[in-house]
Amino acid sequence: MLGELEGDGQVVVGDLEAGIGTVLRLQSGMVDAVVVVVQPTAKSIDIAARATRIAATRELDVLVVANRVRDEADLSAIRDALGDHEIFVIPDDPAILRADQEGLAPIDVDSASPGVTAIGELAGRLAGSTAPA
Amino acid sequence: MKIVVAGKGGVGKTTVAGTVSRALARNGHRVLALDADANPMLGISLGVGPEDTDALVAVRQGLETGDSEHEPTIEGFVERFGTDAPDGVRLVVASRIDQFDPG
Q1: Where are the beta strands (DSSP E) in A7-98?
Q2: pLDDT of residue A132
Q3: Do A16 and B18 touch (CB under 8 A)?
Q4: Which among A6, A67, A107 is the nearest to B22, CB-wise?
Q5: Mean pLDDT of chain B, nearest integer
Q6: How far apart are CA A41 and CA B35, in angstroms?
Q7: Which site among B13, B14, B15, B52 would you substitute to test the A interface, given the most A Cβ atoms closer than 10 Å to its Cβ?
Q8: What residue numbers bound the domain in which A109 lies?
Q9: Exposure letters A39-65 (e unless 16+ CB within 10 A, then b)
Q10: pLDDT (average), residues B66-86
Q11: Which residues of A touch B74 (CB under 8 A)?
Q12: What digits encode the pLDDT tens for the residues B11-25?
């Protein structure tokens, strides 16, 4: 379905299935960027490392999002495994936790919270030179 | 432009996808959010609420069990089966059945 969607004049944001299944089906040129979200846990870092390796072999642009980072130790664990890629750090954020608990969009809970602000910066980086339609 | 968000379950993948979508829309981009997760929760992170998110999932199940007719084009699919999220984001839950895929 992703391959069929027209990316011109709009931004398509695909939330893939968990794990690396769909990443394996991505082909060169199919998407403009693969955002790999990782938390500072061994299992999450392992899956992220596999996903980034697969994406790299298909010459896809990879951005790593280090989510729920509490301190420098959390970040260095992620940097050690994924430091070859651009890393966006999303701090642990009570507003995002509250959104999860209440079934709300984090941006509606607090659009200026540290985590939401960091994701907004990621969005700006992803949009890059693409002018609004 | 097309972006996909990947990662292990429970790492905040959907939170990132939903919030990136809303932030892009607030910056003036036309955004189509595509929920391809087996456990589709993107609607919640986008702010359409649990009820409307569940309704979209039911639409997909209808498609996959053959209860609904398919659309011949992907644009028709998005128009007919998508829903509007805040800030003008259009949300569609991906079907595994690609009837509009010619090949």
Answers
A1: 11-15, 33-38, 62-69, 86-91
A2: 53
A3: no
A4: A107
A5: 85
A6: 25
A7: B15
A8: 93-127
A9: bbbeebbebbbbbbebbeeeebebbbb
A10: 80
A11: 1, 4-6
A12: 999 999 999 999 999
Three-state DSSP state, A124: helix
Number of domains into which chain A is organized: 2
Average pLDDT over residues A18-31: 91
Structure tokens at B46: 């986008």
Tell me: do A101 and A73 sit in the same domain.
no
Query: Which pTM value belongs to this model?
Result: 0.91
Do A77 and A88 share a structural domain? yes
Chain B residues 52-81 with CB within 8 Å of chain A:
74-75, 78
Judged against a pLDDT cut of 90, whether residue A44 lies above it is answered with yes
Question: Is B20–A130 a contact, with Cβ atoms under 8 angstroms apart?
Answer: no
How confident is the prediction for chain A on average, in pLDDT?
A: 92
Instruction: Tell me, yes or no, whether A39 and A58 share the same domain.
Output: yes
